[in-house]
């Protein structure tokens, strides 16, 4: 992993311990991005999370793991629960921009 990206991802590691070291953005493409969490990779589609599509790359990489099951993007004010990534069918409503 790129050193600068690792520093962004572990920015608050003194507070969160090793939690953030177990999660990372691994790929971004036109359809979405991949989030590696505890050795499992999840796809986050821009269709379901359209605010990410408007984001700059560094804003997507600036992710914090607030707890074992909660992820936060402070630059975008977006939160995603791990269960929504594991079982998206349980969360049929995706956030839509009001514009």
Structural class: alpha+beta
The oligomeric status of these chains comes to: single chain
Q: Major sheet: size, sense and barrel closure?
A: 3 strands, antiparallel
Radius of gyration, rounded?
A: 13 Å
Q: CATH topology, anyone?
A: NE0471 N-terminal domain-like
How many E strands? 6
In helices, the fraction of residues equals: 25-40%
Q: What spatial order of strands do you see in the largest sheet?
A: 1-2-3
The end-to-end distance, rounded to whole angstroms, is 36 Å
The helix count comes to 5
The SSE string, one letter per element, is: HHEEEHHEEEH
Low-confidence stretches: 12-20
Short précis:
The chain is α+β, with helices and mostly antiparallel strands and 99 residues long.
Describe the structure.
With 99 residues, the protein is an alpha+beta fold. It has one domain (3-90): NE0471 N-terminal domain-like (2-Layer Sandwich), CATH 3.30.2020. It contains 5 helices and 6 strands, in the order H-H-E-E-E-H-H-E-E-E-H. The chain has a 3-stranded antiparallel beta sheet. A 3-stranded antiparallel beta sheet has the order 4-5-6. The longest helix has 7 residues, at 3-9. The model is unreliable at 12-20 (pLDDT under 50).
Please outline the helices and strands.
Layout: H1 3-9, H2 13-16, E1 23-29, E2 32-37, E3 40-45, H3 50-53, H4 57-61, E4 64-67, E5 70-73, E6 78-81, H5 82-86
Antiparallel strand pairs: 1-2, 2-3, 4-5, 5-6
Which keywords apply here?
99 residues; 31% strand; 5 helices; 3-stranded antiparallel sheet; NE0471 N-terminal domain-like; alpha+beta
């Amino acid at each position: 992993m790129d050193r600068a990206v690792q520093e962004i991802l572990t920015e608050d590691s003194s507070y969160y311990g090793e939690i953030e070291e177990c999660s990372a953005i691994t790929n971004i493409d036109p359809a979405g991005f991949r989030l590696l969490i505890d050795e499992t990779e999840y796809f986050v589609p821009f269709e379901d999370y359209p605010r990410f599509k408007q984001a700059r790359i560094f804003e997507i990489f600036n992710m914090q793991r607030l707890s074992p099951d909660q992820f936060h993007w402070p630059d975008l004010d977006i939160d995603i629960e791990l269960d929504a990534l594991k079982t998206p069918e349980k969360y049929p409503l995706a956030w839509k921009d009001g514009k």
